Amino acid sequence: MKLQPMPRDEFADYLVRQFAVGELILSREEADQIVAFTEAYPYYTQKLAMIYYDMKRPGASVAEAQQFLVEMESADCENIFVGLTNHQKRLLQAIATAHPSSIFATAFLTAHRLGSQGGGRAVLRS
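-> structure tokens emitted (126 positions)
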């Protein structure tokens, strides 16, 4: 079941309290960095917080914990990407590079040779 993002302020406060339970100080700025990086999605926020908790004692930064999380998750993302059709891959790559306001805009679809709006919708569904 996919969980929706949590309210950012409440999630950051929660992380600060949880670190304190473990006798570590997490500044509000660090908590905000964690929540912002994961866009407040519970799974990744908790995973990043756990990584940072384990790394904090030796003095690592939030950025180092973020990099570690990305490295941990990259194999799963690569496996998913490999299983996509060529059209799905093109759409993802186009979104990543162009950051369109609408992936159904004719100009975006034409510029990236993605076909029709209906085709784009079918790719998204799959």
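DSSP finds seven helices and no strands in the chain.
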